[in-house]
């Protein structure tokens, strides 16, 4: 089953996506997601200039060998651009293998371990009444687990809070990568105050628990902004509200920072969306410093790398919580859902729904009902790309915001 074509497709139905389509001599095609928010063209060039020429003529069936060939063969390993490109190839080859077998991918990964994957949605609001409305809207949409992000008094815009306040729970409202107005594209800048945040967030969770009771799983994302001692305090302050997890409490480059957080709080911890290799988890798994692995299939090196990572995590009793914001394309999302269904140590799946434009370009078959996601039983990943629709949405530069403290110092966004 020789590879005859490897095409990189960049499309922007409201936001940018990089997709690799691999075609074999017998006409089977496979898709892989290589989207890297705000740095999309670097992955597109890596794929079309450096990887596609190496794929032509290779045996599409040799997935592990191709992964090692691209990873070790480049000599320069890891890094978000390289690993998104490796992931795109790997995912496309799994799509092809499953289509050739006439099976949904999860069957090749060992078959279903559950009927569906518990998904969490993103409720947000500028203040408590807006957040309560947003939670109600998410419950009405069928979500059975909800992330809560809140505006902070004194700050104009805060990570995770939809610009309109998401009072109606409109799922399309929050898209952090923004196109700038006139002139060359530049990231917008936001202002951040960690002390104000630490004072406010526990009050928000108190209000949400008072309104919705103890059952509903609630999550929160700290987006790498706290020092270890600040994160330890937040974890302790949130203990009465029984969070499902506190995500990205401290900066991702320093895994040992979580030792201090762990010593002080029983709030479960999750990290990993900006990691780009299973190796990044080393001490986090072996010392059991986290409860959930947060990587995206797209950023950790594909289905092959994610499967190895989750199997290693399982040995330490650590579960999955695969990254699923809108900057993971429906192709990356489908790959996550097949893994979610198959692995024993599934925890939860993030699910921010894609816009109508995105779903016009990417024809998905996965379904959401009663709080659970299922990848469908179509052979392969179960997602197809409509190239004519994709061509209607050309690439448009967009950046994630840059964050500054109130005195102007650049801070983690
Ligand atoms: C996030 C993302 O989903 C999450 O938990 O932290 O929204 C993240 O900000 C984006 O993926 C950045 O591209
Ligand atoms: Mg996050």
UniProtKB/TrEMBL annotation:
Which Gene Ontology terms describe the biological processes this protein takes part in?
amino acid catabolic process; carbohydrate catabolic process
Q: Record's Gene3D superfamilies?
A: Enolase-like C-terminal domain, Enolase-like, N-terminal domain
What GO molecular functions are on record for this protein? magnesium ion binding; mannonate dehydratase activity
- Using the record's annotation, list all stretches that form the Mandelate racemase/muconate lactonizing enzyme C-terminal domain: 128-268
Cite the NCBIfam families for this sequence. ManoateDhtManD (NF043051), PRK15072.1 (NF011654)
Q: Would you tell me the protein name for this molecule?
A: Bifunctional D-altronate/D-mannonate dehydratase
Say which species the protein is native to: Streptomyces scopuliridis RB72
From the broadest rank down, the organism's phylogenetic lineage runs:
Bacteria, Bacillati, Actinomycetota, Actinomycetes, Kitasatosporales
